[in-house]
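S.,

Sequence below, as promised.
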Amino acid sequence: MPQLRDDYNVFAGHDLQRTKALADGVFSIAMTILVLELSIPILGTVHTEWDLWLLLLSLSPKLLIYFMSFMTLGIFWTGHSLQYTFITESDRHLNWLSIFLLMVIVLIPFSTALLGEYITFKLAIGVYWLNLLIFGIITYAHWHYACKMGFITQNIPDFKEIDKSIRNRVITAQIFYAVAALLCFISTYLSIAMIIVVQLNYTLAPSFRHRSK
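The prediction came back faster than expected:
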């Protein structure tokens, strides 16, 4: 019996294709669930065009949080897929790190709904930031473990630069997210604005730098 357990631990989690497929599915579902918070107003409460305008304006905070969270998931998916561009092998530990990472992703719709409903509450910002922090920690651990175990493709001449870039990107993002979270003590809207600025930098700035060369 012990031998069977040892064999299972050795062979489990080696199928990278299933891991990547699961990740893509979880990300796509989490992105889709975000829009469910944008509920359509009840027909009986709207009698004029102006009423509908007012109701749509009342949804603007949730639309803002939806936009922010969709970018969050897009950035996270890009980072996760980037790691698997270079990871060619796996084991059960790396597999479970990826699963725990997806567990955090599934929580994004919850923290988004909480923040959308209580946008002026510091605790709602704190919960959202904690979601980002845990993802960053697991993402870094996932990449560090893959490098440590030699699961990275060997045909990369500039791997040290790539490794440094991936690690710095995670660390820098978490520093900026922490600063954004602390801004909630001044204004929760300022905190949200800072998070969006950070995300826009990660989604748009690389292309700007590329074009400027």
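The chain has one domain: 2-212.

Coffee later?
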